[in-house]
Specification:
Blueprint: H1 9-27, H2 32-39, H3 43-55, E1 59-62, E2 67-70, H4 72-102, E3 105-112, E4 115-122, E5 137-139, H5 144-150, H6 155-161, H7 177-190, E6 193-196, E7 203-211, E8 217-226, H8 235-252
Antiparallel strand pairs: 1-2, 3-4, 3-8, 4-5, 6-7, 7-8
Helix pairs in contact: 1-3, 2-3, 4-8
Protein name: Glycerol operon regulatory protein
GO molecular function: DNA binding; DNA-binding transcription factor activity
Organism: Nocardia terrae
Length: about 260
């Protein structure tokens, strides 16, 4: 069991800091006196809170008036959130169409350090569907989506995210970084990735890259299914359909390469 704080002071400070941000957002800009009055605390307390928020970029001070407004960190966090919301909004119907066409489950995934997170999903029309992957985090090196996303990283970034000896999840999991790097080179050359029973025995998948308006790979569209139904022989055929759907999503996001 996690150790509980000895007092409520840290939690109270967090609550006050968040309330101060809400006040600044509501007013557009606010000074120490205004924020203190809203919070019902001494101005010295607010000064300390705002100093921490300013140091972290959550607020910035207007030099001419001594007031604070929201800083770039808030904008960056909001932009990240809206980007993921836009990705789901722009991709869901195409995921649905692809899942219906190929009869297998489709997912949209983003990279988070050495793992992927599935942010959208459409269940295939086949009689036996896989469990839902939405919101789940999976090891990037053992998934087709992860390989697509890792293949776009500079070599130094890839090495910093992954260990030389990678964790094994099934007999086919790639556990050597050098072997994975060879596979990633193939992914870059052919434009899609595959996994044959690497995350789980009996689970196969292919994936294609989704790009933003600057041409950066920001997500991957995958098709996955049980190996008895989605055999390796089908990979090129299904991958081509995944590439076409991923390209359509990319165009919606402003990519015209």
């Amino acid at each position: 069991m996690a150790k509980q704080p000895e007092s409520g002071v840290p939690v109270q400070s967090v609550d006050r800091a968040l309330t101060a941000l809400e006040i600044v957002a509501k007013l557009g800009s606010a000074g120490i006196t205004e924020i203190a009055a809203e919070l019902g605390v001494h101005k010295s307390t607010v000064s300390r809170l705002m100093a921490v928020l300013e140091a972290r970029g959550y607020v910035e001070q207007l030099s001419d008036r001594g007031k604070y407004r929201l800083g770039f960190t808030v904008v960056r966090l909001a932009g990240s959130s809206s980007a993921h919301l836009d990705l789901r909004r722009q991709s869901q119907d195409l995921c649905d169409e692809l899942a219906a066409r190929v009869g297998e489950t489709t997912n949209i995934a983003i990279l988070d350090s050495d793992r992927i997170i599935n942010v959208a999903e459409a269940v295939g029309s086949a009689g036996i569907a896989l469990r839902t992957w939405i919101g789940q985090s999976c090891p990037a090196h053992a998934t087709s989506s992860g390989k697509v996303l890792l293949a776009d990283l500079p070599a130094a970034d890839l090495r910093s995210r992954l260990r030389k000896r990678l964790e094994s999840f099934a007999p086919n999991t790639v556990t050597e970084l050098a072997v994975l790097q060879t596979q990633l080179a193939e992914v870059r050359a052919q434009g899609w990735a595959s996994c044959e029973e690497e995350l789980e025995i009996g689970l196969n998948a292919v994936a294609a890259p989704i790009r933003d308006s600057d041409g950066r790979i920001i997500a991957a569209l995958s098709v996955s299914g049980p190996s008895y139904r989605f055999a390796a022989q089908r990979f090129p055929e299904i991958a081509q359909q995944a590439v076409e759907a991923a390209d359509a999503i990319s165009r919606r996001l402003g990519h015209h390469g």
